[in-house]
Fold:
Amino acid sequence: MKTLKSGDKAPQFKALDEQGNTITLDDYKGKKLVVFFYPAANTPTCTVEACNLRDHYKDLQAAGYEILGVSADSQRKQTNFKKKFNFPYPLLADEHKEVIHAFGVWGPKKFMGRIFDSIHRITFVIDEKGVIERVIDDVKSKEHAAQILASS
Structure:
């Protein structure tokens, strides 16, 4: 797994969000962007993480951040996840894993003695020029917004 690092240029991407809107990196040109990758919608840890960002969304916006969640879930699963928890930010339905692979967050994981390929829970903080400012690879789901804000 070759994950992007601080100082790397964020990859250009184009994917559909939960509503079928096309989202690209260029949509965030001139803005600070947080792209958080999570393994699966409606799972306990992913829900806690996404809700923490929802609960601190105004603080993140006040610090100048836009938020974008990404998983390999279908558009339908992302729509249900967003509606159920009232997320104010888009969720990309990256079923073909194009964005996931572009950022380098797909690879082997170990869980309960099993090794399998999956999405790693990693967050990228991207500056206004499209450069990765920070990579948070030790995401604490209950404190994720604070982790992001600590760098601003």
User: Anything to note?
Assistant: The first strand starts at residue 14 and ends at 16. Strands lie at 14-16, 22-24, 32-37, 65-71, 91-93, 106-111, 114-119, 123-126, 132-136. Residues 44-55 form the longest helix (12 residues). The radius of gyration is 14 Å.
